[in-house]
Amino acid sequence: TPLKLKEGLLSVTSSEESKDAAGFEFSEDKSTVSITVVGASGDLAKKKIFPALFALYYEDCLPEHFTVYGYARSKMTDAELRTMVSRTLTCRIDKRENCGEKMDQFLKRCFYHSGQYDSEENFAELDKKLREHEGGRVSNRLFYLSIPPNIFINAVKCASLSASSSSGWTRVIVEKPFGRDSESSAALTRSLKQYLEEDQIFRIDHYLGKELVENLSVLRFSNLIFEPLWSRQYIRNVQFIFSEDFGTEGRGGYFDNYGIIRDIMQNHLLQILALFAMETPVSLDAEDIRNEKVKVLRSMRPLELENVVIGQYKSHTKGGVTYPAYTDDKTVPKDSLTPTFAAAALFIDNARWDGVPFLMKAGKALHTKRAEIRVQFRHVPGNLYNRNFGTDLDRATNELVIRVQPDEAIYLKINNKVPGLGMRLDRSNLNLHYAARYSKEIPDAYERLLLDAIEGERRLFIRSDELNAAWALFTPLLKELEEKKIIPECYPYGSRGPVGAHYLAARYNVRWG
Ligand code: NDP
Ligand code: BG6
After folding, report:
1. Which are the contacts of 17, defined by CB distance < 8 A and separation ≥ 6?
2. Which residue among 19, 74, 77, 244 is buried most deeply as judged by most CB within 10 Å?
3. From CA 70, how far away is CA 85, in angstroms rounded?
């Protein structure tokens, strides 16, 4: 029978001092946290997970006694893992301080165990090593599954059967993709739940850990001025835009099986939309927030083909440099119909949002890298100053832009009188530019999410009913695209994407920001 362990407490206070395997002093009875990065040799582990763990250590956010274990099939010694990890650690927090020293201390807490993902025996060996480090204290264990989805279940099974904590909590962070459609996602959840309780599963969507996405609720619910305007009465349309100025370089094999709708829209953009559009939660408790998100997702209409435009990037030569087509990637079939761009109009059929188009646009190999929410307000009724804008009344409306990245900012476009004796109006920005306002660097999304998982805070992780509701919106469309073999519109690498996206917006009287 699989081990389903109940949640335990993170810390227990005590007094006596002792040393761990790395020579660090700890109070006797304190609980420990062992973080195992499964798939430690991979891209995400190197790029994001180890650097985020180091940043947390640097900021004294990790518990006093912790150990980081890398686990993968590749053969590596502890020293080799440390060398690999050290290449991607950065002193972004404060370059003047003792960062090098902190790095050395952190690396001494990192170890490696080589094993197969489907071997209970190999996970039992890991368990033995973890126990040695835990030294008989209450042990809490976090497994980060940074591996391809086809091996998730084997790894969860073996970790749960052979390396669960016997005295504290065991939690598992699962990376997307959470299936390809409603059926496969439900099957994945069922399989995970054979070995874990729902509250042990932390489904990560790293966009929820981004500073400006977290701030969305603060903006809405702690300022008097926004919430009264947050409805069909004042908002004309809302846009969620994701664009990258590079292609699928290196990830074509993964991407071709998923496409941009599953990669970005069904998760990152939809999660932001849910936070944007949900009703006020009863409290800041994780369940209250997630209940509201589920409600709004369930009030949405499943996407329809006529409200969607898909594209795929083609090779383009600019300034003597030739940028590749998506299908030039050797891991992508030459006749692939996988979209690298999509635009869609979505609707929420509830009292607050009835009739308001929520537009999404996501694309790779576009002209710019950005993620933004744009809220376009209605016209001022009977505006005395309309004549200042001639026929271009769109210019007269207010727009709130939340720039999630890069160069985080929140700005509101307002109309203003140009100083002087005449009466000329001008569009200006009331601008909260984070770099100018705050001197502290913004933490990476993975830092916040890892810390939350260690602390058992589930607010920013996806609950299974939320996931089901999200897939229910996209699955019929995804099936139709595949069954009808819809051909994506071509767009040149580095362009603004297919023109179809503009026609789609125009149908709803919207101009992309
Ligand atoms: P990788 O492809 O780099 O795989 C991670 C590790 O898993 C590899 O180092 C390898 O380790 C092992 N592995 C790879 N393929 C197989 C296989 N077919 N069978 C068994 N083991 C395999 O993945 P990433 O690090 O890029 O991503 C990890 C997870 O995170 C994936 O689910 C991905 O979708 C998700 N993700 C990744 C992002 C990124 O930017 N990379 C962004 C968001 C999500 P070894 O051979 O040593 O066992
Ligand atoms: C990942 C997608 O979830 O998010 C990638 O799989 C994408 O395709 C990435 O590049 C973007 O994340 P960020 O944080 O760099 O905007």
Report:
1. 25, 26, 27, 28
2. 244
3. 10
Interface pTM, i.e. ipTM: 0.97
Our answer on whether the CB atom of 490 is closer than 6 Å to any ligand 1 atom is no
187-216 per-position pLDDT tens digit: 999 999 999 999 999 999 999 999 999 999
482, amino acid identity = E
Instruction: Kindly write down the DSSP assignment for every residue of 315-350, as one continuous string.
Output: -EEETTEEEPPGGGSTTS-TT----SEEEEEE-B-S
pTM, two decimal places: 0.92
Tokens found for residue 455: 């602390």
70: its two tokens: 């890398």
Sign of the alpha-carbon dihedral angle for 429, 406, 284, 300? positive
Write down the pLDDT at residue 334: 95
Residue type, 336: S
Contact 158, 113 (CB under 8 A): no
Residue 148, SS3 per DSSP = coil
pLDDT of the residue at 6: 31
Sign of the C-alpha dihedral computed for residues 436, 437, 439 and 440 taken in this order: negative
Compute the distance from residue 268 Cα to the ligand 2 centre, in Å: 9
Question: Using 50, 70 and 90 to split pLDDT, how confident is the model at 8?
Answer: very low
CB-CB contact of 51 with 90 (8 Å):
yes
User: In this predicted structure, which of 28-37, 154-163, 257-266 has the lowest mean pLDDT?
Assistant: 28-37
| Pocket test residue of 41, 43, 158 for ligand 1, highest count of atoms within 8 A of CB | 43
Closest CA to 13 of 138, 133, 132: 138
Active-site residue 268, yes or no? yes
Does residue 426 register a pLDDT over 70?
yes
CA angle 365, 263, 479 (to 5 degrees): 110
Name residue 344's beta-bridge partners: 308, 360
Residue 256 has a pLDDT of 96
Tokens of 503: 């026609």
User: HEC states along 32-91?
Assistant: EEEEEEECCCCHHHHHHHHHHHHHHHHCCCCCCCEEEEEEECCCCCHHHHHHHHHCCCCC
Q: Which residue in 206, 268, 379, 502 is the catalytic one?
A: 268
- The Å distance, Cα 442 to ligand 1 centre, comes to 26
